[in-house]
Design a protein that fits this description.
Helices cover about 20% and strands about 30% of the residues. It is of the alpha+beta class. It has one helix spanning about 35-50, and strands at about 5, 10, 20-25, 30-35, 60, 75. It has one domain. InterPro entries: Imm32. Pfam families: Imm32 (PF15566).
């Protein structure tokens, strides 16, 4: 599980061969992912939940970096 430190933040890990696509369909938002993509997102969410990550910490998901080209951008933030 990646650890969070105030100095370095949270190290983001991606499983080899991950694929994630996000689509905005009006009031619906769909995330499609292969096994490696689901594991990557789940690991990031668990790391944010279990490492005393402060409110306001967030991860940006964007096409061309971690999402398939043409995907809708989104942010996951700790409340």
């Amino acid at each position: 599980m990646p650890e969070y430190t105030p100095e370095k933040g949270l190290k983001i890990y991606w499983k080899d061969n991950f694929q994630i696509k996000a689509t905005s369909l009006g009031s619906d938002f769909v995330i499609e992912a292969n096994k490696e993509g689901l594991i990557s997102i789940a690991t990031q969410l668990l790391a944010m939940a279990y490492n005393n990550v402060p409110s306001g910490f967030h991860i940006h998901y964007e096409d061309g970096t971690c999402l398939e080209d043409g995907s809708a951008r989104f942010v996951i933030e700790v409340m």
